[in-house]
Every structure is written in structure tokens, then in C-alpha cells.
Amino acid sequence: MKCDSKVVGDATIFAIQGDIVFNYLSEIREIIKGQIDNADTDKFLINLEDVGIIDSAGVGFIVSVYKSVLSRKGNFGLINPNEAVENVLETVGLTRLFKVFKSEDEAVKGI
Q1: Residue 30: its pLDDT value, please?
Q2: N or C: which terminus of the chain carries fewer CB neighbours within 10 A?
Q3: Which range marks the domain in which residue 12 is found?
């Protein structure tokens, strides 16, 4: 699993490549939380375009990122999850907590 970040407009976007599963989360969690803590923005997005699957630990990871953003009184959303990932997020009710966007442009404008 790999995670790159960039700032687009006034939003920080984390692009994750690979599966969001237990075995790969600890390093990515620290990277993202550190960047959130030190960011000059309060808008954060996770681009899931290159994520194949997500397990329960991955769901917990997304919730922990969401809580970190909320503690800053920020805004959070997800970008372009595939059907399998979106089904998991819907099943556990996360799509009611934050927005899911179809594209990066839509996300930056809508968050």
C-alpha cells in the first residue's frame, strides 16, 4: 500500500494505492495523521480510485482519519471508491457520515 498527498485548492488529498487492509495500515495511518495535524487546511479527502478492497481494519482506519479531521473542525470526504469498497462503506453506514465524490474536481468543489 502506498499513499501520496497533494494540496488542490484549499483541500489536502491523500491518494491511496493498494488494498486498505490490516497488514498495511500502521505506517499509512501515521503518515496521514501527521499531515492532518500539521496541515494549513481544514479540508481533507481520501482518493480511493486505486484501492481494490477494504477490510474491517481499513474501515476503522477511515473512521480514525475522519475523527482526526473532525477534531480540527474540518471537512472530510472520499473520492471515487470502486463498487466493492463503496458497498462495504454503505453496509457499515459510513456514507451517511461523510460525502463520497465521483471525481477529484467534484470533491474539491463540493467539500
Answers
A1: 87
A2: N
A3: 2-110
